[in-house]
Amino acid sequence: MKKEILKYLKEYTYDTLMIDRLIVSSFLYSNKLSVERNELILYYKILETDIDEFKVLKEFLAIHKKVGFEELIELFEFVISPEDKVVTGAVYTPNYIREYIVKEAFNQITLSPETKICDPACGCSGFLLTAAREIKKNADISYKSILENNIFGLDIQSYSIERSKILLNLLALSEGEDCEEINIQLFHGNALSFQWDQNVQNFEGFDVIVGNPPYVCSRNIDDESLELLKNWSVCSSGHPDLYIPFFQLGIELLRNDGILGYITVNSFFKSINGRSLRSYFQDASYDFKIIDFGGLQIFKSKNTYTCICLIQKSKGKLKYTKINSIRQLKSKSIPFNIVEYESLEYENGWNLQNSILINKIESIGQPLGKKYKTRNGIATLNVTDKGLKELESMSNVIRIS
Ligand SMILES: C[S@@+](CC[C@H](N)C(=O)[O-])C[C@H]1O[C@@H](n2cnc3c(N)ncnc32)[C@H](O)[C@@H]1O
């Protein structure tokens, strides 16, 4: 995004209504979208008769000629005040990550008119936009129907919920659906205490939960949330980060066999505050895929070490992979290494990288089972001399001959 635009918007950061009017109108005018019925979008649209605002809009459009959905999301993130960003961890997820997570999740379920997809910390609903588009590709139903029946979102900031409504209404409008009103099930509240069963009719759990839970270290968490963390067993070790309970709350909100797909920081593999979460995962032994980005930076605005977690709420194995480039994520299939839950130590941290090494060694050389025994119970391995050296350097492998 051009620097001038961001500098321009900064002046209005604290005037939420003006900011939203400017962003919505720039989207409408730059995409030549007319709106006659949609009441929400009409409320935000700046008209030529709004003389002062229209002048600002024209100046804005002169710098930024084309505003698509991704720019809209970027603008909505940009105008969140720095103070709010610290407390709520608001960082929006790039399109290719949202698409990867949503497609992977949808591959594991059978979509039906009753399918329920939720982002419990939805921001301006980038994930829900991606999910709605993906449903539309697979079913001949209107966006109004998808948004009213299949999509659910929650955020602690009321402006996020308002912007979610805007984004999703614009999605319908841009596809020719100019409806007076779309009743999207978007809620304002704290995910740590939100009662979905009291807000959603006949609630029996979600089929899919997606998102990018807030990363907020314990010293920046607000008092109410700090108190609520005590209700989540995964927060009982160290000083919890706010993203940690989102795993437990997400899994508890899923129906059996449902899928959770998050992008989160990867510190829970090893950190002290991730110990209870690791123990929770090991006890549950869910079908769990981890794509670790290692040092690869996914978020432009934040220096973080992240991973994608795809968890099916049914028993299975842990599969781990580490990727070094975004291209690998876009490739057709990513090879995973299977890690036995029994081989992991929740107390000291998960050594997931070892699984890659072991698989590499297993695929070459001679059988190793007679030469080595491991505390983690690997039965047969093949090994070369180089592999032997690497194995001997691992703490959980003991040579027996
Ligand atoms: C990292 S952003 C992710 C937004 C969106 N899911 C995405 O990926 O683009 C985290 C969001 O969590 C929200 N949030 C923070 N604490 C929350 C809580 N306790 N309950 C619900 N939402 C919360 C923030 O307002 C912010 O919009």
Structure explained in plain terms:
This protein has 17 helices and 13 strands. It is α/β, with parallel strands linked by helices. The protein has three domains: 1-79, no CATH class; 82-350, Vaccinia Virus protein VP39 (Rossmann fold, 3-Layer(aba) Sandwich); 353-399, no CATH class. The strands form three sheets. Strands 3-2-1-4-5-7-6-8-9 form a nine-stranded mixed β-sheet, sandwiched between helices. It has a two-stranded antiparallel ribbon with strand order 10-12. β2, α10 (158-174) and β3 (185-188) form a beta-alpha-beta unit. α7 crosses α8 (126-138) and α16 runs antiparallel to α17 (385-392). The longest helix is centred in the middle third of the chain and has 17 residues, at 158-174. The chain is globular. The protein starts with a helix and ends with a strand. The site of S-adenosylmethionine (SAM) has 25 residues, from α8 and β2.
